[in-house]
Each structure stands twice: as C-alpha cells, then as structure tokens.
Amino acid sequence: MERSKSYKELDSKYYMQVFTxxxxxxxxxxxxxxxxxxxxxxxxxxxxxxxxxxxxxxAVTKAxxxxxxxxxxxxxxxxxxxxxxxxxxxxxxxxxxRAFFTNSGAEATEAAIKLARLSTKRLNFVAFTHGxxxxxxxxxxxxxxxAIREPFEPLEPRCTFVEYGDLEALAGAVDGETAAVIVEPxxxxxxxxxxxxxxxxxxxxxxxxxxALLIVDEIQTGMGRTxxxxxxxxxxxxxxxxxxxxxxxxxxxxxxxxxxxGLEFHRGEHxxxxxxxxxxxxxxxATIGVIKGLLPTVKEKGERFRGALQRHSxxxxxxxxxxxxxxxxxxxxxxxxxxxVLVNCAADGNLRLVPPLVITEEEIDRAARVIDxxxx
Length: 376
What we know:
The chain is of the alpha/beta class. The chain has 2 domains: 14-57 and 297-375, Aspartate Aminotransferase, domain 1 (Alpha-Beta Complex), CATH 3.90.1150; 59-288, Type I PLP-dependent aspartate aminotransferase-like (Major domain) (Aspartate Aminotransferase, domain 2, 3-Layer(aba) Sandwich), CATH 3.40.640. 36% of the residues lie in helices and 17% in strands. It has helices at residues 7-14, 46-49, 58-68, 83-94, 105-120, 137-141, 146-149, 167-173, 199-210, 278-308, 329-338, 361-375, and strands at residues 25-29, 32-35, 40-43, 98-102, 124-128, 159-162, 178-183, 213-217, 241-244, 255-259, 315-317, 320-324, 341-342, 344-345, 350-353. A 7-stranded mixed beta sheet has the order 4-10-9-8-7-5-6, with helices on both faces. A 4-stranded mixed beta sheet has the order 1-2-3-13. A 4-stranded antiparallel beta sheet has the order 11-12-15-14, covered by helices on one side. A hairpin with a 2-residue loop joins strand 11 (315-317) and strand 12 (320-324). It is globular and about 55 Å long.
C-alpha cells in the first residue's frame, strides 16, 4: 500500500461510495468514541442502536476473546457452543417459543417471510408507510421508502402498504391471500414515530380476524432500547414472530427470528453457514447479562434526555428519541459533531438519538446542551 495515500483517499478509490462520512472513528469506551485525531465524542448514534452496552463493554469483549481461544466457527451441522443457551434466554425474555439465528436484521426479516409463507400457504404481505425492514430483495419488498425500493422493482413478495396508524385501511388491505402483517412498534428509520394509542392491539385483532400472522420488527426497538426487552411489551400485545438484531450482541453481527410455539421451520426448510456461530452467541449472552442490569435505568434516562430538550418537542420511549428539525437536520447534525456529540438524521428531517444504554446522567446533560444549542 502506498504510504502517501490517506485513509480517506484509499476509501474513495477502492470502496463503493454508498455512505456519506466525515470522520474516522478508531476507539470507543462506554458512551464515548474517539476519532483518528484523538478527539472525543459522546455517541448518541451507537452504531444506529447497536452498541446498547456501550463500546467495548468488558463483559462482552471478555466473552468474545474467551470463545475465540476455544472455537471461532463450526458448522450448524453440529451443536454450537452457547447457541441453545442463548435461544432459551431469548425465548424466556420475549415469551416466544423458538429461535432461529441470523447474521443481520435483514436476514431475520427474510426468515420471517419464508416462515410466514410456509406456515400459512399464503403469498402476500401488508406493511406500513415509512416502515423499514432491510435492504435485501425480500426485506426491501416490505420496506416503504420509494427512493431505496423502486430502483429494484419488481420485488417479491407482493406487499401492500397502508398508513401507519390507520386500522381501517389495514382491515381493508388484509385478505385471504395475506400471509402476515409486519409492523415496527416504534418506527426507527422514519425518525422515531410512535403509534397511536391502541394501534398495535388493533393490528393484532385484524390479523386474528383475517387469519394472518403478526410479525413485529424489533430490530431497532428491542433488547431494552425502550425500557423493556421488547417495545411491544409496552402495549401488552403478543406477536406471532419477532425480529431482533442491532443491540443483540453489542456490535458483533447477529440477528434472530423468534416465533410462538407451533410456528417453526423443520429440517431442511431454512439454514445458514455463519448464523448463530460461537462468537456471536457468546457476545449475545454477555450482552443480555449486561442489559439485565441496565434495564431499570432506561426509562429514567430517557425522561431526563427528553426533559432537557423539552422546548423542541421530543418524542420517544426510553433511550429512543426523535426530534423534528426539518430541512436543517443535516446542519444540526454537523454542528453537534463539531461540538463533540454524534447524532443522526433519519427520514423527513427527524433527528434520531439512540445512545448506548450505559450513557451517564452527565453525558446526557452535556449532549442535550449541545443539541439544544445546535437546534436553537
């Protein structure tokens, strides 16, 4: 490699330019990260709701290192270390019956599509406007945003989109050919959009009445992000299938699809080479252990954060917060970065804050001051 070339020059030349990036992060600890110049930032992005236990949590890094000295990979043709124990833990905390592990949230969506079609013998799906479920061809078919979906059409499976929150439209869209309805309990990529009161229970009722499955996408909202293991838990609604990823393994690539009892793949119906490997499962088990201790603090931290930003009308649950900024969103994001706080612009001019669950009160107060000044 030519020493004269900077990292950014190498990236520009050799990596497909699908992301917009300004800084290079090289180290992280807790809710803070450092760039290649040594500058520190309070991280309110957390890898987009991924690093829930903070960056490089000692319990998680120890679990990964310990397992890496024993066995890094083995095929799912054999029993995998930590896999059965992790499946048991996830079923217990979600109230579901069985788990299948994946490498990402999009793969979890793909698995749910297959399972829904297989079990109902129906072909079509219903999803919601502004929803996001992944970028693979199947998950993209259920993702609403035209800018990322339309260039790849025609897509399969066939999906009908209805307005998020509109139960009447949903009831009209779900019919005898609908395998499942997929919904986010809080829409993340849309900018932290909360559902109307009673909406999720209404979605469950429509699915029951029409014989369709209910898939709840907890890829961004799950694993304690909103103050409960699942955001659907705030509504008391029981899904047929739940999708997890992002915060499940503290940054180690992993996802999961969980399904109620009686709803499962059988031998040969699905599989994966890398999914649910020893390192991923070790990281996820350690992550769950850390989140158990953090869960009681999430609601209070979220209230503190929203309270400090009250004049900007923040919305959210737990440490998942959205603020509508409008056309100035990118400007606000940049100004926050200049002042040492990382935030993210989601869709439609909405600022999204999804910091690590380990963020301290002092870090919340500092980040809120920077954000307040950047907006105001």
